[in-house]
Design brief:
It is a single chain. The chain is α/β, with parallel strands linked by helices and about 475 residues long. The protein folds into 2 domains: about 1-210, YjeF N-terminal domain (Rossmann fold, 3-Layer(aba) Sandwich), CATH 3.40.50; about 220-465, 3-Layer(aba) Sandwich (UDP-N-acetylmuramoyl-L-alanine:D-glutamate ligase), CATH 3.40.1190.20. The chain is about 35% helix and about 15% strand. The protein has 15 helices and 19 strands. The strands form 2 sheets. The protein has a 12-stranded mixed β-sheet with strand order 8-1-10-19-18-17-16-15-14-11-12-13, with helices on both faces. The radius of gyration is 25 Å and the shape is elongated. The model has no long low-confidence stretch (mean pLDDT about 95). It binds ligand NPW, adenosine-5'-diphosphate and potassium ion. The site of adenosine-5'-diphosphate has 16 residues, from helix 13. Potassium ion binds near residues 120, 149, 151 and 154. Belongs to the NnrE/AIBP family. GO terms for molecular function: ADP-dependent NAD(P)H-hydrate dehydratase activity; ATP binding; kinase activity; metal ion binding; NAD(P)HX epimerase activity. It comes from Malaciobacter molluscorum LMG 25693. This is NAD(P)H-hydrate epimerase. It catalyses: (6S)-NADHX + ADP = AMP + phosphate + NADH + H(+); (6R)-NADHX = (6S)-NADHX; (6S)-NADPHX + ADP = AMP + phosphate + NADPH + H(+); (6R)-NADPHX = (6S)-NADPHX.
């Protein structure tokens, strides 16, 4: 797990004041982090490396980089379309001007670029791009070359929002620490591989307290069985309430069984065709240790649903129930909610936090997850999306491993099945949401054929050998 910050200017200030590091030292390290990445990516000394720099310190990082790369590569090309404005950019440029680094006034005639380094705008982007900047980014995006962004792809602002266009990087080296702007669903399209550039001070000294965390692969704790003297009851009993769209519940039940629940029962009104190892019952069995409900529910009997919600058993709630105010009576520590953005908008309206559409939500996912968690700190929320956000007790965990191959009907039902399985096996609500989400996305990431053909059954198969 890594820490994520709302902004890093206070962290930089600490570097100057407490650790007596100057802006120049930090910048030299920022440029060094870029250099190290470039040396890994570009082996040929004759490669053409285009460094595009803006007027501020993001641009200054790029100018500094050109100096550091000069020793290794013959064809460094600096492009400063708007000149320089910040003091550091001026200082770095005066240094570079004493060297013979090529500078160009337009990229129109430039051919055969092997690498583009984007240092146009960083954390200082504070207004929409003008037409000239848009055109430059559009041109850079059309160049067929490797692409690295310094700090953040130019065009993404501090909220992770894009005004019009942004540089599309294969790799982003963000300076010092992870920032929340890098994790909006919108930004995911542009960031590429994300790495943190070291600013010459250990992470522990640089970073401070935060409530936001970035999940890593190593955080995944699979339900590996430790008991030797065990029986099926040792690993819990998951019950999935099957609705009128039966497929959803069947997928969730199968996922729950494959993720280790000792017993899985599908609660049905009439017998349905299901894998033989899933039991069927008209009621919630007495020894049930976790319940999944909401997926494919369709039309339902409110009294029956309330009776199930009244049971003091951990539950994962999905889909249709986010539109019903019945849910308001149960937002406590026994619940994991797994809405997709549209369902979360419905829930936000029900609980009186906001009346917004999906577009507004997607621009402000962290904000609304925070607001939900402030109001219902005990409830675990998992907001689906390109980057999944999980919150509980005012802490937010970000899972970035998901891929576009999950954009399919049934992916969410599998996730509910994985969560109920872990709940049944004794994981806490928060740990069930985190670990099920990690398993779900890592399986999708590992799928080896292409990014369009993954099915819910492939996810279940993947769970077997994650
Ligand atoms: N702090 C540190 O210790 C370290 C910082 N580091 C680096 O510094 C970067 C931040 O630098 P920064 O603050 O100078 O901001 P930056 O992103 O270069 O842009 C600001 C300039 O752009 C302008 N501008 C803004 N929007 C615009 C628009 N739409 N269209 C046109 N212009 C626009 C804006 O204009 P103004 O507001 O002045 O009108 C201003 O002149 C950070 O990302 C990291 O790379 C590292 O070296 C590590 C140490
Ligand atoms: N582009 C994407 N990148 C990462 N994860 C995605 C993407 N699209 C969908 N997902 C994931 O797939 C799942 C879809 O769930 P949902 O929309 O509820 O589907 P369904 O209800 O049909 O099962 C969620 O876990 C979501 O985070
Ligand atoms: K940038």
């Amino acid at each position: 797990m890594k820490k994520v910050f709302n902004e890093v200017s206070s962290l930089d200030k600490k570097c100057y004041e407490k650790y007596l590091l100057s802006e120049e030292i930090l910048m030299e390290h920022a440029a060094l982090s870029l250099k190290n990445e470039i040396e890994k990516k570009v082996k040929n000394h004759n490669s053409n490396i285009l460094i595009v720099c803006g007027v501020g310190n993001n641009g200054a990082d790029g100018i500094t980089l050109s100096r550091l790369l000069q020793n290794r590569y013959k064809n460094i090309i600096l492009y400063l379309p708007f000149g320089v404005k910040s003091n550091m950019a001026k200082i770095q440029l005066s240094r570079v001007n004493t060297l013979k680094i090529k500078q160009i006034d337009t990229i129109e005639d430039i051919k055969d670029i092997d690498l583009v380094v984007d240092c146009l705008f960083g954390s200082g982007l504070n207004k929409p791009l003008n037409n000239e900047a848009k055109k430059i980014i559009e041109n850079l995006n059309s160049i067929n070359a490797k692409k690295i962004s310094c700090d953040i792809p130019s065009g993404i602002n501090s909220e992770g929002y894009i005004y019009d266009i942004a540089f599309k990087a294969d790799t982003t080296i963000t300076m010092g620490a992870l920032k929340i702007s890098l994790f909006s669903d919108i930004a995911k399209e542009y960031i590429g591989k994300l790495k943190v550039g070291n600013l010459g001070i250990s992470d522990e000294l640089y970073e401070e307290k935060t409530n936001i965390y970035f999940l890593e692969k190593s955080d995944l704790q699979l339900p590996l069985r430790k008991e030797i003297n065990s029986h099926k009851g040792t690993f819990g009993h998951a019950c999935v309430v099957i609705g009128s769209k039966k497929g959803a519940g069947i997928l969730a039940s199968d996922a729950a069984f494959n993720f280790g629940a000792g017993l899985v029962t599908a609660m049905v009104h009439e017998e349905i065709q299901m894998p033989y190892y899933i039991m069927q019952s008209h009621n919630i069995p007495e020894n049930t240790t976790a319940i999944a409900m909401g997926m494919g529910l369709g039309l339902y009997d409110k009294i029956e649903i309330r009776k199930i919600l009244d049971l003091k058993i951990k539950k994962v709630i999905d889909a249709d129930l986010f539109y019903d105010e019945i849910i308001l009576d149960y937002l406590d520590e026994n619940l994991v909610l797994t809405p997709h953005p549209k369902e979360f908008c419905a829930l936000l309206k029900l609980i009186g936090i906001a009346n917004i559409d999906v577009n507004d939500l997607q621009k402000n996912r962290i904000k609304y997850v925070k607001e939900f968690s402030n109001k219902y700190p005990k409830t675990t929320l998992l907001l689906k999306g390109a980057n999944v956000l999980i919150s509980q007790n005012q802490k937010i965990y970000i899972n970035t491993f998901g891929t576009t191959s999950l954009s399919k009907g049934g992916s969410g039902d599998i996730l509910s099945g994985l969560i109920v399985s872990l709940l049944a096996q004794g994981y806490s609500c928060k740990d069930s949401a985190i670990n099920a989400s990690l398993a779900h996305t890592l399986v999708a990431k590992k799928y080896r054929y292409n990014n369009y053909s993954l099915t819910p059954n492939d996810l279940i198969k993947g769970i077997k050998n994650i």
